[in-house]
Amino acid sequence: MSRFLLAGxxxxxxxxxxxxLGQFLRDSGxxxxxxxxxxxxxxxxxxxxxxxxxxxxxxxxxxxxxFALVGFPFRLxxxxxxxxxxxRTRDIDCVVxxxxxxxxxxxxAAKLTRTxxxxxxxxxxxxxxxxxxxxLTSFVGxxxxxxxxxxxxxxxxxxxxxxxxxxxxxxQQQARVELGLDPMLPTLLVTGGSLGAKSINDTVIQSxxxxxxxxxxxxxxxxxxxxxxxxxxxxxxxxxxCQVMDVAIAASNFAxxxxxxxxxSEFTATGLPALYVPYPVxxxxxxxxxxxxxxxxxxxxxxxxxxxPEFVQSSLIPVISHANGLKTMSKNAKxxxxxxxxxxxxALVLTALDTNTRD
Length: 359
Prior knowledge:
Layout: E1 3-7, H1 12-27, E2 31-36, H2 42-48, E3 53-55, H3 67-89, E4 94-97, H4 103-113, E5 117-121, H5 128-134, E6 140-142, E7 153-154, H6 161-166, H7 172-178, E8 187-191, H8 198-206, H9 208-213, E9 217-221, E10 231-233, E11 236-239, H10 245-251, E12 254-257, H11 261-270, E13 274-276, H12 285-295, E14 299-301, H13 309-320, H14 323-335, H15 341-358
Parallel strand pairs: 1-2, 1-4, 2-3, 4-5, 5-6, 6-7, 8-9, 8-12, 9-11, 12-13, 13-14
Antiparallel strand pairs: 10-11
Helix pairs in contact: 1-15, 3-4, 4-5, 7-10, 11-14
């Protein structure tokens, strides 16, 4: 049995693949310990899945010249030395990082202690921590083929097991019935992620009359923070959070969503074509996440500012109304899906461990 330290957190794109790999390693007879911060999603999700969570201080990289920026290297070194002690005292055999505040110290600590290191990047455009980690190891896994981390292995994005299972077939009409929808109507899934997306929500709500008039019903997941009441009526089901995303995806013919790495990976794995509306703030990573599937004909891409009721009327409704076109888009999306991403990443991790053992 080997012992792995899995570092990452802050967002679902970091925590979810960490948990998926942790479960894979545990099922393979190994031990996995998580490293994160007290503030990130990992503080809740990791213990809930039965994994031990060790924490270090949150260490954001200052973006402007300031005293905080001058002191950052010293705080990073202190955190790295703390993780190095963890590696030694807990007899860690391999470190795996997923990005986020806890990863950079873990990468440096792995280098200091000569511990095998694996990096997984969720987005097509890597952040600071994973760019650093990729310089320290040859074992780098990426979710998308257009990743800016070159010489990496395309592992895909580990996604939830129930989503992968739904890719093999779920009765669409039954899924709609379970969600309180008409089993016979084309269904549009709208989701902005766990926090929701106000611009997407507003445009869809303003477009409901046109969508329903076109014979399209809407399953609208608005996010817990949206402060919108839940509604079930003919042609429209609105909920704050969906506990059964596999059923929601199976019920749908098309989706409108942000382009987070998990969302794009889940939609391609299940063959669900989508209109991706990338989050307009950041480095543009969401646009790049969706770009390969759009170029393959498995989805569409529109800027947040351009997703308006007029766009829904002129561009979105005609796409959803074309049944044969949707079948082609679904086939194209599924051609890029990687349903065994957890196993691929697990194989990369075990190869890194085995390589070190033989060395």
